[in-house]
Structure formats: C-alpha cells, structure tokens
Amino acid sequence: MAAIAAFSVCSPLPLSPRPGRPPIPPRRPTAPANTLEAERGVEFETGDSFFRRESAVGRDLGVLSAALHRRSLPPGGGLRVLDAMCGCGVRSLRYLAQAGAAFVWANDASEGCRPLILSNLSGHPRFSPQGDRSWVVTHLDANRVLAENYLRKEFFDLVDVDSFGSDSSFMRLAISTIRKGGLLYVTSTDGYSSGGHRPHCSLASYGAYVRPMPFSNEVGLRMLIGGALREAAALGYRISPLFSFYSYHGPVFRVMLQVDRGQLHEKSRYGFISYCHGCGNSQTFSWEELGQISCACRKGEISKSVVVSGPLWTGPLHDVTYVTDMLQLATEWGWACTNGNEVDLEKLLNQMIGEGDPRLPPGYIKLDEIASRGKMNSPPLSTLINTLQKEGYVASRSHIAPNAIKTNCPIAECIQFARRIRCSTSNRR
Ligand SMILES: C[S@@+](CC[C@H](N)C(=O)[O-])C[C@H]1O[C@@H](n2cnc3c(N)ncnc32)[C@H](O)[C@@H]1O
C-alpha cells in the first residue's frame, strides 16, 4: 500500500470538485465517424474501441440496477458510479442519462479512447447547477483508479468492472471502493476455467478447483460469485448476488453483487458441487460433508465417475425480489418488450425469477440428456416443467441453456416423468 500511496501523491487525477467552482461548458472533441450506435434510445459513437453490440443486455441490466439503487439512496445522496473499463464510454453515458447518476468516473487504460469518450459524454453537462462535477475521464490501470479513490476515501455506489478474461485481480480493490450496501458489477470471459479445462487457473483466480461438468456455464457464474465472496470475507465484507447473467457471446459471465460490512449470514451457501457422469445427479456439499465424500471415495463407495468442484457459491443465482423490481422498472420504462436487436428483457427477467427459487439446487439438466439416458425422444420442455411442478417439485427454465430445466427432482424420476409424457403423447396420435 505504501507504494500505491506514494504513486497517488504525484497523480495527475482530478480530485473532488471544489465547492463554488463555476460550470465549464464541455468542449466537443472530434470522434471517428460512421460508428454511430444506439441503445434504448441513447446514441453514441464506438470508433475503434472494443465494443460489442451483444453486450447491450448486460448494460441494460446494469442500468436497471443502478436506477433501482439510486431510488434507495437517502434524499440528497446522488448516485456515484465508477466505470473502471469503459471502452467508448457507453455505460458511463447510460448510467448518467438513464439511471440518473449524479457522478460517473469513466476510466479506460487506452488513451486512444479519450476523444471518443469525451465526445460521447459531451452531451451530458460536465458540472451540475451546484458546480459539482458530473463526470471525469481518466486513462489508468483500473486498479490504480480504485486504489487512489480508496486512499482518498472517495467511495462509489456502483463499481462496474467490465474486464477481458478474469476479473479476479481487480476484485479486492473494487470491493474496498464501494460504499456500504453498494453494488459491484463484475464480468469475466474466462470460459476455459469455468469449463473445468484449467483447474489450476480457476484455483489461482477464484480459489475454486473446477472440474468438467455438463452445466459448466452455471458453474462459471458460481465460481465468479464464490471468488468475490472469498475476497470480500478476507476484507471483512459480505456479498449477496442480486442477479447473475451468462451470455454465449464471448462467453460472458456477469454478476451484480451487493456489498455489505460483516460476515455472511448463511454460511451453507458456499461449498462444493458434485456431479455423477454415471447417473447424471448432482449434489451440494459443505466443507464438513466434503471430508465424508473423500473418505467414502477411498473406501470405494463412490463411483469413479463422480467429480467434485469447489468451493463455489451454491445458493440462489438471483435475488427473486430484486429481479422482480428490475422487471417492474423495465416495464415502466418500456424496456420489457423486444425491439429490433434488443433482447426480450421480460422473458430473460422472468426466467431469472423462476431459476432464483432458493429451493433449486445448482445445475440444470438438458432435455437431450434426459432423452439419451431414457433412450427416447425429448418431451416438450414446458410440459415436463408443468408435470414436475404438479408432482410437487420445483422446476424452471434456465436462462443459460434454452433446452434445459432446473429442478430438485432426481434425474431418474425426471426420466420416468418424461417417459410418461412421451407415452401419453404417442397414445393420443
Ligand atoms: C470489454 S472492454 C469494455 C467495454 C465497455 N465497458 C462496453 O460496455 O462497451 C474492456 C476495456 O478495458 C480496457 N482495459 C483493459 N485492461 C485494463 C486495465 N487494466 N485497466 C483499465 N482498463 C483496461 C480495454 O482498453 C477495453 O476498452
């Protein structure tokens, strides 16, 4: 920390706005032409920056969360956002224009993005009527921006770290820079680690030894939450996932976490997931139970096809009440319906509400797996879900895999139900 402190003394970073400073009209620098984009009515240029149109839904979800958080702040407390890897600045712009942020710090290591970011933000006043700065743009390593704000005790309500690869090297400082009860929005594109193909890398980055499992993309989200939880605990904080989002464009794993002081209330939500390649069942284990598995394994009582990954987050992927509020806001804003290239947020958020049921264990089963294990054609997904629910099980779709179900019904019984559905359909023909 001493080295960081010394660094910050000679920092060229803008400090907090000085009271009474008069507003300076923004200068509009020139941005590269022909790269105009629009998201939910907000226009911006992308130039040569790293920009993915497919990430618009991740930005929509971030903006909805930021707006909900702004509503929860005490009167007079404006929303402060740190967009640590802003690219062309689209998120910063949307946090200002759509979520009503009072202040956004837009940072990207690439100085080449500067004209673009300035141009995109220039439509938004740089100073509030009270003379407070509304946004600043810097080009530093994300960790340095986080460290300098932390050292100056300048905290944020939302820190957005939209990184390439693993986000784990930014996690500690990002958590430290968040106001009590604030939000951390993190992204990882490390699909190899979540797929179980690099267990030593997942161990190094997230503290989890991950083995190949059929629901590896859900494991990726759980690995990300588990890694954040571990870092937070070391700093004396606890985190709770508000929503988790996987997108196959990348692939990209995003989680929105609420950060609070103190220990995790529910310790049983951090443990191990086992999967049996032989029978298809999965199970969760606490630290204590893991000891029993390895003991049983040594005695040859557990099939060799069982793999165990962890420790990971084993609790719900989403907070159902929170996602319901997001859906309500999306509906209020007219974002719930699909519009051209935009993702159908209503469908996505409803799927998240279904799969956030705390009674659902981690993992999902693809219909193909049910069909292949039962040696039959796949039953219709919605019919199987309805049947399982009528039989008293919890069942929902997964936003991660469109042809999969999440259920607390053991796979052998699922196959029986699927077989009955198939038989009754063919009898009706
Ligand atoms: C995935 S892109 C960001 C995209 C942007 N958030 C959006 O929604 O369009 C990641 C960005 O991080 C920047 N970057 C990479 N490493 C960085 C670091 N260590 N610190 C700050 N920025 C970094 C890159 O220049 C790149 O623009």
Describe the structure.
With 429 residues, the protein is α/β, with parallel strands linked by helices. Among the domains are: 40-263, Vaccinia Virus protein VP39 (Rossmann fold); 364-429, Phenylalanyl-tRNA Synthetase, Chain B, domain 1 (2-Layer Sandwich), CATH 3.30.56.70. 38% of the residues lie in helices and 21% in strands. It has 15 helices and 15 strands. It has a seven-stranded mixed beta sheet with strand order 5-4-3-6-7-9-8, sandwiched between helices. Helix 6 (168-176) crosses helix 9, helix 11 (320-332) runs antiparallel to helix 12 (345-355) and helix 14 (381-390) packs across helix 15 (411-428). It is globular, with a radius of gyration of 23 Å. Mean pLDDT is 87; it is low at 1-29. S-adenosylmethionine binds at residues 49-51, 55, 59, 85-87, 90-91, 108-110, 141-142, 162, 164.
Write a brief caption for the model.
38% of the residues lie in helices and 21% in strands.
Question: Can you tag this structure with a few keywords?
Answer:
single chain; 429 residues; alpha/beta; Rossmann fold; Phenylalanyl-tRNA Synthetase, Chain B, domain 1; 7-stranded mixed sheet; 15 helices; binds S-adenosylmethionine; S-adenosyl-L-methionine; transferase; tRNA (guanine(26)-N2)-dimethyltransferase activity; RNA-binding; SAM-dependent_MTases_sf
Run of helices and strands: HEEHEHEHEHEHEHHHEEEEHEHHEHHEEH
Using the alpha-carbon principal axes, give the shape. globular
Using the coordinates shown, work out and report the CATH topology of the domain at 40-263.
Rossmann fold
Poorly predicted runs of 5 or more residues? 1-29
Largest sheet, order of strands side by side?
5-4-3-6-7-9-8
Amount of beta strand = 15-25%
GO cellular component, one term: nucleus
InterPro entries: SAM-dependent_MTases_sf, Trm1, tRNA_met_Trm1_C
Catalytic activity: guanosine(26) in tRNA + 2 S-adenosyl-L-methionine = N(2)-dimethylguanosine(26) in tRNA + 2 S-adenosyl-L-homocysteine + 2 H(+)
Enzyme class: transferase
